[in-house]
Amino acid sequence: MDIKKLRLVLNSTGEAGNLSQLNLAPNLLETFIPGYGLISKFILDTFGFDIGVVVSAGLLIFATGTAWKYVSKLAWTFLNQYLVASVYFDDHDDLFPSVLAWIADQRVGRVARRLKAVSKQGSSPEEDDVGEMDNDPAELFHFGRWAAKVPPKYEPYFGSYQFTFGYRFFIFERGKREKSSSPWQPRSEEEHIVLKTFGWSTAPIKALLVHIKQWSIERENSITVIKRPQSKEIRRYQGAWSRVTSRPSRPMETVVLDPEQKEALIADVNEYLSPASPRWYAVRGIPYRRGYLFYGPPGTGKSSLSFALAGLFGLNIFVISLLEPTLTESDLMQLFNNLPRRCIVLLEDIDTAGLAREEEKLDDTTKDKKEEKDEKFSAADLAKELRKTAGGGRRGGGGGGGSDDLKPGISLSGLLNAIDGVASHEGRVLVMTTNHPEKLDSALIRPGRVDMQVAFTLATKHQTREIFSRMYSTDHDTGPKKSVIGITVTSNGHSPNGTAGKLLTNNHKIGEAYTRDEIEELADKFADLVPEGKFSPAEVQNFLITRKKDPQRAMDDVALWRDQLLEAKERKSKIVFVQ
């Protein structure tokens, strides 16, 4: 049958009428598809098939999909504006990594098809991963092979993800946008996170964030976070602090200090951080600030006590170096103003920042010695020169006045204004450490700025005994306290039978242990052999670390180590005296 006659027959029926309605006019199709009439005629004459129906159906489907996409986008915009509550986070906010880690730990993060792998080269495996690995203590440890077994962490990539929490529907969106930077700075991007839920109230999202914060705290309850100022370019227009690292919290009992001093310090900090303290200070018109000065010889545990306090009270540590060449007084004020309500601000080696007494009177002998020292280029002088070079003679601008403004970097008046000026931050715990408290200006350490001074001395007999006992005690004190004898290296570094990678002890079998009483007895003998007030706790601890698996070896070597170190100290003191 002729195709044209068939079409005439079909057009005369109702079904064909519907088909003809679907088949758009050739002139209309020619408008959107140039050459359509010629192509359709060629196909019709050659194959006897009219493509008008197929093309018309395709255009109709395309138009329907486009309309649906437009209508759905319009509807979602309306819902998102009037019926959806949202909370936003920038990547420099403390909640950003917590929310990201929580999402990655949930089912939505585990089953997501778009993931971002996070693997830091050169970093040590995390504790939860290390616990799953088996390592033979008798084998030589190869860090590369061990760390290669740690799988990378995964987190949701940029996009939108849906999940439920507490029988409520949430939407998690991760994206990035261009940072608002100055014209002379390179363009960069920052990430952001959005949490959404249907409704007019953000209360469900706030409840979810409370849960995430508690989850994060429980996950890192034994971790102390350390933050430092961001780079000069970033801290101008973003958060002033960045998280640089985190480390396991140091137990307070591992800090070797006079027990009475330690108890007094803990009680004072605990009283200050009490929730009722801010009102007590406010009612009496006293600024809600607390400052401490830890002073003593190097290696006596000043910084260690700061980290132990942070772990004990669950605080983060914010470390500021006043020797940073790019740090100005305005930067210092901004850093203090961007501190959280409760934290520890650590200013280490405050005496090296050039904040010496301004009205110090020197006799002739001291002046002569000072002139000789001025001929040498010290670390503080180098830092000052770097400040001049980096800042081009720029003056600090945060509260310095008078002659202090003529000095580059941080002046004494600028530091004092940041610590307890009119606009200074309240609620923080300020800790300053120094090896030479006599070099500090009296205005810096007066009451109100430094409320308690803690003196650190060279190791006493009690401290030496405590270091030894702690070094060889077990991690878990269950019943009689034991110390397992580990593995030490023989003279050739291998076992007597030549097995590669096997290391044996000199005097004991693997797994042999000392009882608690035996360790205490050795600790008493060790403390008797180490002279009191001659060595720092760090020196004693360093000696024991090299023999941490064999207390008897430490007892055998302590006399030789003591005599050699005393002799070296005596030679050094003579050289300094001659100079």
From TrEMBL:
One Pfam short name: AAA_lid_BCS1
Positions of the AAA+ ATPase domain: 288-460
PANTHER family xrefs: BCS1 AAA-TYPE ATPASE
Species in which this protein is naturally found: Tothia fuscella
Keywords, in A-Z order: ATP-binding, Hydrolase, Membrane, Mitochondrion, Mitochondrion inner membrane, Nucleotide-binding, Transmembrane, Transmembrane helix
Main location: mitochondrion
Membrane topology: Single-pass membrane protein
Catalytically driven reaction(s): ATP + H2O = ADP + phosphate + H(+)
UniProt-recorded Gene Ontology molecular function terms: ATP binding; ATP hydrolysis activity
Sequence similarity: Belongs to the AAA ATPase family. BCS1 subfamily.
GO CC terms of this entry: mitochondrial inner membrane
Name of the protein in question: P-loop containing nucleoside triphosphate hydrolase protein
Subcellular location: Mitochondrion inner membrane
Domain BCS1 N-terminal residues, every copy: 57-255
